[in-house]
Amino acid sequence: MTALLEVSGLRTSFKLESGGEFAAVDGISFSVEAGRTLGIVGESGCGKSVTSLSIMGLLPKGQGRIAAGSIRFEGRDLATLTPAEMRALRGNRMAMIFQEPMTSLNPAFTIGDQLIEGIRCHRDLSHADARAHAIEMLRRVRIPSPERRIDEYPHKLSGGMRQRVMIAMALSCEPRLLIADEPTTALDVTIQAQVLDLMRTLREETGTAIILITHDLGVIAELADEVVVMYSGLIVERANVERLFALPQHPYTIGLLGSIPQLHLVQDRLNAIEGQVPTPMTEIQGCRFAPRCPFAADRCLQAAPPLVDLGDGHSAACWRAPLEADAEIELVA
Amino acid sequence: MSALLRVENLVKHFPIRRHLFGRQTAVVHAVDGLNFELDAGDTMALVGESGCGKSTVGRLVLRLLDATAGKVWFDGEDLMTLAPERMRARRRELQMIFQDPYSSLNPRMTVEQTLAEPLALHGLARGRERERAAELLNLVGLAPQYLQRYPHEFSGGQRQRIGIARALAVEPRLIVCDEPVSALDVSIQAQVVNLLQDLQRRLGLAYVFIAHDLAVVKHIATHVAVMYLGQIVEYADKRSLFAAPRHPYTQALLSAIPIAEPGLKREQILLQGDVPNPIDPPSGCRFRTRCPYARERCAQEVPELRAIEGHSVACHYWQEIMAPQGVVERVVVNERLVRLQSAFRGG
């Protein structure tokens, strides 16, 4: 079976003011099967959002470009599509929800206008039918009294409601792939729980594949089937969700899991990862995590480790993987 | 022993006026009758969702905002009625760390100027300002060669360290930390949380820690007050709050936090709807519109915050509500992981 989405060797570059270019995403490959949820986790500047914009064809014109690699969606190479073909796909076969429900709705139009426009763009429906469909979508995302709400402007809705409207909009044409970029980060925790629950239910009902982009490992654990961990433009580890949390192999993943305060664990002190996240512009020879890695050996400073298959669909980009519990900390001069 | 900080019936209402000089048309009930105490060396966490009034409390305690009513006792003096001059002197002992490390530093001042300014204001370390500034940087884990740099040359985590150094410059006894780590990346958050804990131990600081992230709070606090629409609904020492949350809101809040363990089975309490508007809070118990256990009486009578064995809860029916499983803590889940993680602590 071919995957719904297949990204291989994707490299996305941005222009620098000085005239050069830097790669925000530097050669990543992954695939998403129909109906599955892939979590992409990483900190700011790791390239997770650039990955999603690359897939959606939404890179800022004249600044960002796909410099290498391919993205195949339902068997078609997206790079070969005309802008019109891409538009027909976007919002239809694949859709996206963003972090900021405040800024991703147009304040000058009612939510109904915006929903109906999206539906009629892709479906041959009369205005009345599209409106009925929009109301039905609002009901499905559990907006109370949708017949009334549909004529309201975005500022009348709370943050959680706006994010539901965004989800309704994204799902209105039954996409095969939904990209959710930090969908709950701007929301309060009880509202986050509502939205996550909603995404879970809708996934079961529609069979939509989801790419869930987040910095929150808790959200990943609740929703993802497979996980990709990104650091500084690269995939450093990939595994199914149980395995990633139980047997992480890349030191960055291990460090990240130790640095979050967890409700259900007794933690005396957090294991902070010292140092700073490198900017994508930083030139680093060798492994990009090596400067912060307690396991780094000489080799790590010289050559970048490739993403190596460790079996059971688990791979890690680390010269020292698989790491045993008693891994020696080598002192790097 | 009396507490370092004691807040009594603190109230803050923000008037709403239709026009600039118009009549007051309504009132936002930001903080409505708050009481708590904090000892030196302890951390009192104020938690709750946006609009619950937690940040307003922090600003009231430092008198950056004037309270509508109530008292804030700091070391035996009521800050609310203190003369301006005396208050200025007192401010040395009360400092604040802000959420946004990007907007809370002056972009035109070097780190040295940023750190020397509070020293000059309070006449401290005269003649040895540079030395003291270097000391402060060292205290927060930054090298002294950064003294001549400007804020834009630092990352978010480093800026937050500078913000902490600035607060420490005047040797305060109490620091109000307003969401100090929520704008930082996960791996950097841990660095700052550890730093705050180390400083507390070394300097005996008291923190009022304002946060929405209960996992961070569980890690850093000694006491927790859960706020909802301007009021405390539950107040207890940390252990007791997390082991046996009694207010339905606390229970829902705890159960809503995603836990980084796939396949973990637990009961989730999903609250319906959104937080009501603080301009017109619900009658009786303010939480009743979202409470799964609400009854007739909850709409009529305001539940008082009552103490039961050091654990206070504002709910008419807390005794009848089945205590859900609190957070079951485990010491070690994954030995391999714990051992590998310990490498990050350094030798």
How does this model look, in words?
The complex is a heterodimer of chains A (333) and B (347). With 333 residues, chain A is of the alpha/beta class. Chain A has 2 domains: 5-230, P-loop containing nucleotide triphosphate hydrolases (Rossmann fold, 3-Layer(aba) Sandwich); 232-316, no CATH class. Helices cover 31% and strands 22% of the residues of chain A. Chain A is built from 11 helices and 12 strands. Chain A has helices at residues 48-56, 83-89, 111-122, 127-140, 146-149, 159-171, 189-206, 217-223, 241-246, 251-259, 298-302, and strands at 5-15, 21-32, 37-41, 64-73, 76-77, 94-97, 177-181, 209-214, 226-231, 234-240, 308-309, 315-316. In chain A, a hairpin with a 5-residue loop joins strand 1 and strand 2. Chain A is globular. In chain A, 50% of the residues are buried. Chain B is α/β, with parallel strands linked by helices. Chain B has a domain at 5-228: Rossmann fold (3-Layer(aba) Sandwich). Chain B has helices at residues 54-61, 84-91, 111-121, 129-139, 156-168, 186-203, 214-220, 238-243, 248-256, 296-300, 335-342, and strands at 5-17, 24-38, 43-47, 69-74, 77-78, 94-97, 174-178, 206-211, 223-228, 231-237, 306-308, 311-313. In chain B, strands 6-7-8-3-9-10-12-11 form an 8-stranded mixed beta sheet, with helices on both faces. Chain B has a 4-stranded antiparallel beta sheet with strand order 2-1-4-5. In chain B, a hairpin with a 2-residue loop joins strand 11 (306-308) and strand 12. In chain B, helix 3 crosses helix 4 (129-139), helix 3 runs parallel beside helix 5 (156-168) and helix 5 (156-168) packs parallel to helix 6 (186-203). Chain B starts with a strand and ends in a 5-residue tail after the last helix. The model of chain B has no long low-confidence stretch (mean pLDDT 90). Classes of the chains: A alpha/beta (333), B alpha/beta (347). At the A-B interface, helix 7, helix 8, helix 9 and helix 10 of A face helix 6, helix 7, helix 9 and helix 11 of B.
